Amino acid sequence: MSLLDAVASENLETIQRAVSATKDVNELGPGKTTPLIEAARRGMTHAVKLLLAAGAEVTWRDDEQETAILKAGANGHSEVVAMLAPLSSEEDRDLANSFLAAFGASHAPEYQYDASRLHKKVVEVAARAANFVGHEDPLKRLERNERSKDLKTKK
Question: What homologous superfamily does CATH list for 3-110?
């Protein structure tokens, strides 16, 4: 049984056996996902601890450009976010905590973040989405709207 299959089983003993038997704790699955990303997405705190102790790569990004902490945050797993936060980038920590707060996760931590950096990240994501569906770049739209407001206030 692969480590990814063991994580999918959500059985800690099975995961422990698979970690002991594997040569690569960072094996890639569909969508370039890893066992750590899958365990974090499912909120499996004990499995996440086990995988981290075995050397799982915290900064790996899947095909969606998301790390384990982002998957945990997007799924409301505040314990896993707290566990991965010291090992993650500041940007990923902010975004994961934003997910927790936005989705109303219980025990969402209070945190300080740089609003301009978070705004930039949101605009970047919006620009990628707009480009993907063939719409106008949000930055250009924002600039056009600002110019329009300036013209209206001058009249």
Answer: Ankyrin repeat-containing domain (1.25.40.20)
